[in-house]
């Protein structure tokens, strides 16, 4: 199995976990500020990376690319904040649909800054996948003319920026190093305003937000591994699988049965992803 195919499989798991945290965040944000949810989440990420950082200290904190780290942290802060904010002010379906703009941003940034060969086959697969999203979600005009719709789009740009930086950094630095920098500085950016915004949660809510942080942490570790193995433009295409996971969650936990258009869109998305697998297998055979 090629590195790209391994990366795609890891990314599918990561996307499933991130989809779970998005649904959990939509519940939590009804009671607590976006930055408070993000702050608790980053504490969990920080604690998960601390043991490995301590074992390799001080080498684990050394980096020759502080500028890329800074860009990545800025992108991650925008993406994480916008992601929670978007599900608070938009229907979950609309928010998720608009985040798929990340695929386009990621392919574009990967071509310009990583020198990845984003040829016509990958571009076609990305376009077909997004068409499948539109077919399945059937987003109404209200969802796109709402000024709040800019929030997930800006978040998608931040996520794509962070993804390209991770792809670059993951070739030379440990996952723990990547996560410790992000969790500390993103947590710091989220934590300072909490001097005025903090609302003390009860035990149930605290455990819920910690669980959200644990799932998000596992998703991040797996996501970094995916980008370490596969090219960013290929890994980005897996984001479309969020629709599949969302449909499964709706069916098993909320007794929601997907209609014909949703199933058609899902089929198009799956076909797009399978085409990426096929092209990668063809390219591998030629090497």
UniProtKB/TrEMBL annotation:
InterPro entries: EamA_dom (IPR000620), EmrE-like (IPR037185)
GO CC, any one term: membrane
The EamA domain, residue ranges: 6-136, 153-276
Alphabetic keyword roster: Membrane, Signal, Transmembrane, Transmembrane helix
Pfam families (alphabetical): EamA
Secretion signal, residue range per the UniProt entry: 1-25
Membrane topology annotation: Multi-pass membrane protein
Transmembrane feature ranges: 35-54, 66-86, 92-114, 123-141, 147-166, 178-200, 206-227, 234-254, 260-277
Subcellular location: Membrane
PANTHER family referenced in this protein's UniProt entry, alphabetically: ACYL-MALONYL CONDENSING ENZYME-RELATED, SOLUTE CARRIER FAMILY 35 MEMBER G1
Stated family: Belongs to the drug/metabolite transporter (DMT) superfamily. 10 TMS drug/metabolite exporter (DME) (TC 2.A.7.3) family.
Protein name, per record: Riboflavin transporter
């Amino acid at each position: 199995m090629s590195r790209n195919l391994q990366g795609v499989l890891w990314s599918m798991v990561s996307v499933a976990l991130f989809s779970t945290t998005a649904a959990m965040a939509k519940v939590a944000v009804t009671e607590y500020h976006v930055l408070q949810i993000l702050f608790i989440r980053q504490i969990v990420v920080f604690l998960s990376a601390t043991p490995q950082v301590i074992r390799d200290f001080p080498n684990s904190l050394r980096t020759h690319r502080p500028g890329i780290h800074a860009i990545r942290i800025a992108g991650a802060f925008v993406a994480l904040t916008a992601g929670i904010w978007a599900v608070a002010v938009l229907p979950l379906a609309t928010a998720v649909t608009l985040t798929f703009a990340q695929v386009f941003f990621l392919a574009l940034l990967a071509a310009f800054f990583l020198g990845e060969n984003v040829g016509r086959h990958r571009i076609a697969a990305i376009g077909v996948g997004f068409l499948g999203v539109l077919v399945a979600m059937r987003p109404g005009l209200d969802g796109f003319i709402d000024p709040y719709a800019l929030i997930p789009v800006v978040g998608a740009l931040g996520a794509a920026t962070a993804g390209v930086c991770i792809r670059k950094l993951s070739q030379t630095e440990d996952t723990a190093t990547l996560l410790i920098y992000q969790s500390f500085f993103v947590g710091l950016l989220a934590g300072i305003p909490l001097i005025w915004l903090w609302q003390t949660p009860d035990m149930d809510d605290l455990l819920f937000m910690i669980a959200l942080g644990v799932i998000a942490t596992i998703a991040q570790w797996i996501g970094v591994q995916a980008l370490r193995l596969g090219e960013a433009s290929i890994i980005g295409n897996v984001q479309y699988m969020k629709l599949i996971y969302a449909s499964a969650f709706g069916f098993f936990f909320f007794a929601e049965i997907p209609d014909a258009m949703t199933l058609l869109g899902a089929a198009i998305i799956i076909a797009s992803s399978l085409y990426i697998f096929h092209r990668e297998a063809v390219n591998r055979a030629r090497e």
